[in-house]
Specification:
By secondary structure, the protein is mainly alpha-helical. It contains 16 helices and two strands. It folds into three domains: about 100 residues, no CATH class; about 120 residues, Four Helix Bundle (Hemerythrin (Met), subunit A); about 100 residues, Four Helix Bundle (Hemerythrin (Met), subunit A), CATH 1.20.120.
């Protein structure tokens, strides 16, 4: 129904004569469907060039929203008046029929998602495509050998404790991947326990001294026991799955990514180097993309921010391009891909820091 704003109250007297013509519309509409009397003939409205045909539908659609706030002048509601009463009276059959049901939105409009709707999170990650099982197993074996050497004594621990913390975080991240991975690993059935012991190791190696050394050594020995298939006495029953953010320290993962990109930047600086060390280059670029994917998952601080996700996607995409370039032995493409990796890391650290 049409309503009038307050500044048009003074013009109401010029419209009162039309209220007589509007009353038959209301009366006729109320008689439609009543038993015992024939329904009135519906006048057919001819289209008038230049006039919108949807005017009556707008009147009907507006009525429910304004019903609770009707205003009256001399006990006659304002919404009994129309801009063109004769035209509305000629289409009274349409008015009566339209009021019977609410106006419907076009189906196409209902299906459109709101602008800037965040993408849905969750769902399984295709880890096989990001990190092949043999590359994951290769990295895990390197971690075991490095930890064995770093924890020979308190002296070796003191010289390597920061690297030990990084290795513990990477173990937690890789076992988290292995749990969701479709590939097979000798230790996969015990991956949740390895994941938690990796986290324990990363939290123990936080400084110099005997106490930190002994805690780190104990965590490492439990790791090695589970890798060999023996569960340590008193080992807790781990949760089958946990968010990466609970066990894989992001600072440690980012340091491993930095080690990889620094190695590739400083050592793979000629086409001959790329061709002679292709296997190592492919492995390091796969580690970058897989750990980049881990730190983009829900649970890490700022991971729900669009800018953070853009940096992560750029990092992952650059690393994947570098992997493909290394396999094709295209040094130019490899350089371009690594420039993308380095740029995404630098920009992310400038915005979010190093942890």
């Amino acid at each position: 129904m049409w309503t009038f704003s307050n500044h048009r109250r003074g013009e109401l007297s010029t419209w009162r004569p039309w209220s007589v013509a509007a009353l038959p519309v209301i009366t006729l509409a109320s008689l439609v469907g009543c038993g015992g009397s024939a329904p009135p003939k519906v006048a057919v409205q001819e289209e008038v060039p230049g006039k919108p045909a949807a005017r009556v539908e707008q009147v009907a659609a507006a009525a429910p929203a304004e019903k609770a706030t009707k205003k009256k002048e001399n006990e006659i509601p304002f919404d009994a008046f129309f801009d063109n009463p004769l035209e509305v009276a000629a289409t009274q059959g349409v008015v009566a029929t339209t009021v019977a049901g609410p106006a419907k939105e076009p189906a196409g409009d209902m299906e459109k998602p709101p602008a800037n709707t965040p993408k849905a999170t969750g769902g399984a990650t295709a880890w096989t495509e990001i990190l092949p099982a043999e590359e994951l197993q290769s990295e895990m074996k390197k971690l075991q050998n490095r930890l064995k050497a770093s924890l020979q004594s308190q002296g070796t621990y003191n010289g390597k404790y920061k690297d030990i913390a990084v290795d513990g975080a990477v173990i937690a991240g890789l076992t988290g991947i292995a749990i969701e991975h479709s590939g097979e690993f000798p230790w996969k059935k015990n991956a949740p326990l390895i994941r938690d012991y990796g986290f324990e190791l990363s939290q123990a190696a936080t400084g110099l001294g005997k106490d930190n050394y002994e805690k780190s050594k104990a965590a490492y020995e439990k790791l090695e026991s589970v890798f060999s298939g023996a569960i340590p006495p008193g080992a807790p029953t781990p949760a089958p799955q946990r968010p990466f953010g609970e066990t894989a320290d992001r600072t440690g993962l980012m340091k491993r990514i930095e080690l990889a990109r620094n190695h590739l930047r400083d050592n793979i600086n000629t086409e001959a180097k790329l061709k002679s060390e292709t296997e190592s280059v492919v492995h390091e670029t796969l580690i970058i993309s897989s750990l980049g994917k881990v730190i983009s998952t829900e649970g890490y601080s700022s991971a729900d921010e669009q800018e953070y996700q853009q940096f992560a996607e750029s990092l992952i995409g650059g690393a994947k391009d570098a992997t493909a370039a290394a396999k094709d032995m295209s040094f130019e493409k490899f350089q371009n891909a690594m420039n993308k990796v380095n740029k995404s890391c630098d920009q992310c650290h400038a915005s979010y820091g190093n942890g």
